[in-house]
Fold this protein.
Amino acid sequence: MKLPRWSSLPIAVRIAVGVAFLAVLVLVPLGLNNYWKFLAGLVVTYTIANLGFQAVVGWSGQLAMAHASFFGIGAYAAGFLPQVIEKTAFNPETGENIAERTWSGNVPFLIALLLVPPVCAAAGYVLGLPAIRLKGFYLAIATLAFAGMILRVFVEAKDYTRGGEGLSVDTFRLFGWDKSLSSYYLALAIAVGVWLLMGRMRTTRFGRTLLAVRDTDIAASSLGVNVTQYRLAAFALSAGLAALGGAMWGQAVGFIAPQAFTTALLNAMLMMIIVGGVGTRAGAAIGAVFYVALDQFFANFPTFKDAALKGAYRNIAFGLALMVCIGVLPDGLASLSNRLRSIGRSSTPGSTDPSSPAPADRPAAGAGVGSGATA
Amino acid sequence: MLQQLLNGLQEGSFYSLIALSVVVVMKTTDVPNFAMSDMGLVAAYVAWALWSKDVPMGFAIIASLVFAFVFGAALQRIVVYPLAAGLAAVVAIAVALTPANFGIGVTIGIIVAVGYTFWAERTGRRSLAGGSHFPLLLSTIGLAIIIVNSVQPIWGTESQNFDPVWSGKPFRIGDAILTRVQLVTIVVGFVLAIALALFFRSPWGVRMRAIAENRAVASVLGISPSRISMLAWGLATVISAAAMILHTQYNSLTPTNGESIIFAGFVAAVIGGFASLPAAFFGGLMIGALRGLTAHYISVSWADAVPFLVVFIVLMLKPQGIAARGKPREV
């Protein structure tokens, strides 16, 4: 059976399929209970952040490991800006504990949501300025260092984040809907916007230039491309989208604490985009579904004797998914349809072997782990 | 002040040893190995498991170092053929469904997986060896996640302690106290650093450097890259195991011990440009000393920021490492 290529379909068909898919996403939560709505919301928020990660890792080939930190910054910023934060201080004169107001922002949530991504994008740009000179895993180490310091800030800036106690987030209610429905639809609207924007960027000058910078930076610079500015732009874009995803994640979860943004989250994000498919939009979404599904599978798996080990088994499964995927599916799950198509088209079994050169008709967006980053 | 410095040097010795093992792996096989300290941690658990079954401590340590060598060599195969990890898991689960325990399942799984990698090599399957850093980095991150989380089902989550052979009365230097554990840690660090530097001048060491320089030419000259890579990983894991066994005397044995020092180890390796063993070693000691002093004079949470600040400064000022000589690694 010969499957048609997605990009070769008439535009009307593609729009129709897209609208139908969107309709399913819009209608699905109406038939779900609150828990499933919550899970659907998680998938959507991770997708937003993953799309940003694709821009910096997949498109520009830079191992920027501060993604989980920007995700956390977004969650905290959108969480504390609309709130009043108090801490209890001991008054030695009266001998009583009194509440001391450390922040009374009362910034409306939607304003905070509009403010946070550009500010984080600017912060990403500033972080990028010194870090951008580094390549490959040197950049990974520098950005990991930044991530470690941000984690300390989350713990230490108690006046705004409440430190290790964690911060309860007031959920914004769109049109007065219930919490999970409101946060799901708001996140979905943002995700669709980001999705379309990323698709547009990928096929226009910005995305194509980034791929050129990734693959042959010297050649690109000889053609007059300002390589540094493009790398920085990818950095800033990813930081902004991570913050946006984080802000919506905070809304979906309702409670944020520093330990949510450790390297464990970064590893999960890496796993999502690698297993989903590096450099593709579909990969960002598939990875998010895969992550949440696997997480829930282990959380609800009834036969484990020891509940404390569920987390360990789940993490082992994540690690295995990452390794096996690098071994057999370097372009991730999103490349499966292309694989199936190439089996259908050619009779030579060798064409599906990963060691054979990439077929020419492979979509250019499929960056693959192998070609991902310069080292 | 001297006391803080001594405590810091003890802590720094762990970073130094991890940095040495990271540099050995990087120099020979060009893999940024984020699983390095976790691999050593497994050996420390083996030593503890033997000790808790009444094996004499000295023998338990030697046995665990031998184990570390074999374990490191085996994991080198799995990292470059990551599909083997999946195979190991399938076998481990199959064995675990029988009355045999999880640990035995994992052991058999690893043996089968390593067997597969040799078959894969003979039949010319694609390996990650000698390729770009990104897939290798991801592969070692996956491995680190798997190792840390496998420790819990096999050996439990509660922290463990064991008595070293070298415990005894502490020494006094002025006002400061130097415990025997601290002395042994610092001395072992020095000795291993010197031994490694000498090793890299020996014929085997030269072969290791040769495959790092150019795999193709080295194999034409009759050096087997896959065998040398296994040797290098085995050696590095022994060093890492020494660090993690010493670390159990500093902080009791828990599954997260490896995570807590791998980053500082990498920072020390960055100071040496991932090439210089002495620079990596002294870099580790320096980070430890700085941390000890910062914890005392400023605050403990600032001490945690020291490795991050150091790597930021080093990478911004001299990304090729403080002691870079000759051909610098591309940064």
